[in-house]
Amino acid sequence: MDLKFLVFFNFLSLVFGYADWSEDEYPEKWYSNARDNLEKLLSRKPNKNMAKNTILFLGDGMGITTITAGRILKGQLKGRNGEEEVTNMESMDNVALSKTYGIDSQTTDSAATATAYLTGVKTRVAMIGLSGRAKIRECSPQLENYKVKSILKWAKEAGKSVGIVTTTRITHATPAGTYAHTSYRNFETFDGKVFNLTHQQNGCKDIAAQLIDENSYIDVIFGGGRRKFLRKEDRDYHEWNKTGERVDNRNLINDWHYKMEQMNKTHKFVWNISDFENLRPNQYDHVLGILAWDHMKYEADRVVEDYIDEPSISEMTQKAIELLSTNPNGYFLLVEGGRIDLAHHNSNARRALEEFVAFDEAIGLANKMVDHEDTLVVVTADHSHEFNIGGYSKRGNPILGLVDSIEYRELSSGGYTFTSLSYGNGPGGLKEIRNRNLTAKETTNIDYHQESAVFMEYETHGGEDVAIFAKGPMSHLFDGTVEQSFIAYAMAYASCIGPFDRNSYPTCEFERGA
Ligand SMILES: *[C@@H]1O[C@H](CO)[C@@H](O)[C@H](O)[C@H]1NC(C)=O
Ligand SMILES: *[C@@H]1O[C@H](CO)[C@@H](O)[C@H](O)[C@H]1NC(C)=O
Ligand SMILES: *[C@@H]1O[C@H](CO)[C@@H](O)[C@H](O)[C@H]1NC(C)=O
Ligand SMILES: *[C@@H]1O[C@H](CO)[C@@H](O)[C@H](O)[C@H]1NC(C)=O
Ligand SMILES: *[C@@H]1O[C@H](CO)[C@@H](O)[C@H](O)[C@H]1NC(C)=O
Ligand SMILES: [Zn+2]
């Protein structure tokens, strides 16, 4: 089908929906669905193998509402009702709930949570790779004693290859959780303001410098954020009118090259999509791909009239798996769908849900590429958002559209139309009561901000539990309601690394009775 026609058709289904569910009227449809499900569950045997490889997919801000609404959008983009769609994450074998609170916070952030699910230790909000004995923004020699190691480091110590894929800056909280130790997530670069000479003299190092100076063992990195690595006087490679932010006279990309040469490692820095696409397995020991000046683009904005200058999250995931798979000892890979969160902060459900669909596609692709006999795939979120879905919409009602129910057109108290999706707080908030009707055309627009109860410039995170999905060796450990920090611990047990390596825990490989 012609692409333009497909886009037009998708637009129609986004605005007007689709409503044929006639086969659902027959009991046999539901018995047959249940029978299939039952057979799947009855034939399931726990996989007690050692996980040679582990992939952790982290949907930043991907609460359960985002999964439900994203699933519906995914189905509707295929011209279906949407509610019955099966996402790649939900078709994985095991599921659990994760309690996301931080030690000092009911509703938490991506730094404290990354520390939890990557190191196995909960900490304070805004801190990365340090236990809660450290204080926020603290810079002192004490910090050395509070460092906690991430599963990426454990995997490297076990001789595995390790990689990071993110759609945000590679110095942002989630990817930094794999390699950095910092008392403040915003110490991303030496900008002389948020992070300055005083911080450095007191023993702190900015996150970008930590990546280059102390974590050069990482095999593959794909994400954005060149501005954090370049000096104020360095022009960006691609966005010519932009420069870096560093004022410590260090161009960290040059420093990376120098460091790799010192280590006699074959290496490649890539900043553009053509160099990215040309990367082949076994070509280089280390690949540093910083593919955007800032965060990478939203999926919804990535392809503009056939002009593409950044790879998709699926392309980065595929490339990372290909490059990492050459190690006979296996690999650990973190893949972050990092901009679901950022779109939600703008109360921009359409971009958030399109990010979700792209993230779910990357999961589907990875699940096709790997062998779950030896590869554990875990999908989770760090925290939720104040994002809601409801209003008695009828089946197949466009998820980004107006509430339209079976019996009558639901209207707000003023007698006005409203949307199925809304936010508890955020920039779409009602500074005053809205006294006009919304139209479906405006609510499905790419820039529409769903309405909120409380007006705020920046919508906040949500505090409820998030889901963990898993498939592969020991995936049955993901069961029940668990502390978020259990995720790192369970993944380490599945591959007998870190606290479960041969020296610390010699029975790991044998006690599971594989
Ligand atoms: C660095 O920033 C801190 C505040 O975070 C300030 O107290 C200090 O004076 C600054 N140091 C320099 C050298 O600018
Ligand atoms: C920088 O360049 C981009 C296009 O590459 C343009 O859209 C933007 O307006 C420019 N900004 C400034 C400050 O010149
Ligand atoms: C790198 O190679 C050079 C020349 O072969 C050698 O002198 C040096 O010790 C090597 N460095 C490391 C870190 O292996
Ligand atoms: C990509 O980067 C390489 C290395 O800087 C450069 O040689 C090449 O021309 C770039 N390609 C594009 C399409 O910008
Ligand atoms: C708003 O829409 C509802 C439902 O379509 C309609 O009944 C009502 O008259 C509209 N109000 C205005 C002010 O257009
Ligand atoms: Zn956030």
TrEMBL record:
Q: What does the entry list under GO cellular component?
A: plasma membrane; side of membrane
Which keywords belong to this entry? Cell membrane, Glycoprotein, GPI-anchor, Hydrolase, Lipoprotein, Magnesium, Membrane, Metal-binding, Phosphoprotein, Signal, Zinc
Binding of Mg(2+), residues: D60, H172, T174, E336
Supply the Pfam families for this chain.
Alk_phosphatase
Q: Where in the cell is it found?
A: Cell membrane
Query: Which free-text remark accompanies the cofactor?
Result: Binds 1 Mg(2+) ion. Binds 2 Zn(2+) ions.
> Which amino acids does the record list as binding Zn(2+)?
D60, D341, H345, D382, H383, H461
The EC number(s) attached to this protein equal 3.1.3.1
Q: Which residues form the signal peptide?
A: 1-17
* GO MF terms, alphabetically ordered: alkaline phosphatase activity; metal ion binding
Swiss-Prot/TrEMBL cofactor(s): Mg(2+); Zn(2+)
Going by the record, the broad EC class of this enzyme is hydrolase
User: Membrane-spanning residues where?
Assistant: none
Q: Which CDD domains match?
A: ALP
Q: How does it sit in the membrane?
A: Lipid-anchor; GPI-anchor
Residues of the active site: S110 (phosphoserine intermediate)
InterPro entries xrefs = Alkaline_phosphatase (IPR001952), Alkaline_phosphatase_core_sf (IPR017850)
Q: Which family does it belong to?
A: Belongs to the alkaline phosphatase family.
Protein name in UniProt: alkaline phosphatase
Q: Which organism is it from?
A: Brachionus rotundiformis
Q: Which gene encodes it?
A: AKP4
